[in-house]
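Annual report, structural modelling task.

Input specification for the cytidine-5'-diphosphate complex:
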Amino acid sequence: MNISVAIDGPAAAGKSTIANIIAKKFKFMYINTGSMYRAVALLCMKNEVDYKDINQVCDLVKSMDIYFKNDRIIVNEQDLEDEIRSVAVSNNVSNYAAIKEVRTILVDIQQKMSAKYNVVMDGRDIGTVVLKNSPLKFFLTASAEARARRRYLELNNNGILVEYNNILNDIIKRDYIDSNRKESPLKMAQDAIKIDSSGLSIDDVVKIISDHIKRYMAELKVI
Ligand code: CDP
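The model returned the following structure:
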């Protein structure tokens, strides 16, 4: 039986940083589902496909061969990891991610990956939909300001110059769309463990999650 770890939470809560470390530590595969929705938004924007044109969006998604290589997203043999982090993609991704048909296709790919490998998956609907039977579910959150500060530093450190207020507004807007959409809205699974990371270091959060995983693996007698 494969082990699946689900990490959900609002925008810029630190999910990908934490999920990446956990995956390396336990030698699980890291699947950043947000990257998949970002790739959909990027390709649609490049091809001038509006999110309201559901048929065209779906045709495009069906033509996408998506996989991860060295934690970078590859679509139709093209590395899109850098481009999907742009502010323009961040501003538009939630509209594409709210489309039911898009979610059905991506969730299917994600579930097939978790059937094949031990995975750490992060996103918005992992504990509630994609890995709803996993006993290892975490909901990572922090205040909007703490999250905006972290994302601001991350982008500027990577040479993407942004204004703090734009980042804060994007985060608030995205959280609103993600939490209020009809299809698989962002919400904590009933059996998820909630971690507010506002006053915690990365190491603190990694330790909390690792301890739960170790306990579970010891019960299964796999460590
Ligand atoms: O890294 P950040 O928190 O900014 O966002 P992300 O994880 O890259 O996700 C980008 C967007 O994709 C989110 O704002 C959601 O609209 C969407 N998403 C989703 O709907 N379901 C997921 N499982 C993951 C992401």
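The beta strands are 4-8, 29-32, 66-69, 72-75, 78-79, 119-123, 136-141, 193-196.
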